[in-house]
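Aggregate trends can hide what the representation actually does to any particular protein. The sequence in question and its structure tokens are set out directly beneath this paragraph.
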Amino acid sequence: MKLFDLKGRVAIVTGGNGGIGLGMAKGLAQAGASIVVAGRDRAKNEAAVQSLEALGAAVIPVRVDVTDEAACRAMVETAVQRFGQIDILINNAGTNVRKQPQDYSLAEWHHVLDTNLTSAFMCCQAVYPALKRAGGGKIVNIGSMFSIFGGPFSAAYGASKGGMVQMTRSLATAWAPDRIQVNAVLPGWIDTELTRRGRQEIAGLHEKVLARTPAGRWGVPDDHAGIAVFLASAASDFVTGTAIPVDGGFSIQI
């Protein structure tokens, strides 16, 4: 369907070299988009590029620390120089420190907030002029179930992801006149490197997730390919400021 066709579109995916970011990038690539894989790990970037090129996409890697404002702007400039435009930004880069709130150091708090939330804001600021020049565009911010629920081991992470949803709503209202739609995706419990560490650190997490999830399984990164295409395409031109769970029903289970 033309509504979901991304041929001629260019997408930056931060943290696009693995996990949910790579799952989304695969969906965009299969819909015809060119991809900028943005991440800190050069080897992971190159591996992701190879997997996306195998799907027929034009792809470049950009090694970037998204907590650095100048690096975010340089990432956008590189994308524009290579592809001539930017149409889509997916803010997926993230981290976590699992501790009881009284045990966080201030440096750990800032590390999580800067990586998950402030970086997304800086990337949005950096890409805004390019989206406006293109006559509009799409921004997809990655929240979490911790945008909705609390957890004793996730004060910093939850604050960052709750902030992501509120930032999404603010940007959506600010940039709607520029035909820029800004939405958030709230992944449930997805089998990624981050959550595998969580299962090692939190006793019983695996069993609790399965018991709470109506789908009866953990999600996988590729479960996010479809929502990425929807929110990046013309199919969502009248959808903005939303926060959509992709969680196998976790957030609706009693």
